[in-house]
Amino acid sequence: MARTRRKRLPPDPVRAQVESMSHDGRGVTHIDGKVVFIHGALPGDEIEFLYTRKTKQHDEGQVSSVITASPDRVEWSRSASILALVEVAQPATSKIGNLGFNQAASPHGCFPAHRKSGTW
To answer: What's the topology of domain 14-68?
Structure first.
């Protein structure tokens, strides 16, 4: 019985417009009618990616460069990520009950118990 050799992945980056996001957080696009899941891509991004895996049903890739960023893409910085976490987490904390966000988070060392106006 002869072995089948796995096809080589294209070495050159491929340009694509990301259409949506999969359930596991990868960007989704279509190349030649085939679904491609791209790690590190957001819906609305125009990117270049490298293939990491090809199957009969779908392909997978990794972002090599972002040409045009999605409005949802935010550059990471420590202060920006903490502020974003506060903005996202605050509405969710209404389910905690009578505890405020700072009271619920501070025992775990996430945020200071009290915030002075204008400073952290």
So the answer is: OB fold (Dihydrolipoamide Acetyltransferase, E2P) (2.40.50)
110/88 Cα distance (integer angstroms): 14
Q: How many Å apart are CA 36 and CA 14, to the nearest integer?
A: 11
Domain ranges in the chain are 14-68, 78-108
Please give the DSSP secondary-structure letter assigned to residue 107: G
d(CA 40, CA 74): 12
Pairing verdict, β 20-21 and 34-39: unpaired
Instruction: Please calculate the CA angle 25-30-31 and round it to the nearest 5 degrees.
Output: 130
Task: Indicate yes or no: pTM above 0.85.
Answer: no
Lowest mean pLDDT: which of 21-30, 37-46, 49-58, 105-114? 105-114
Question: pLDDT at position 103, please?
Answer: 47
Q: Which residues contact 58 (CB under 8 A, 6 or more apart)?
A: 34, 35, 36, 37
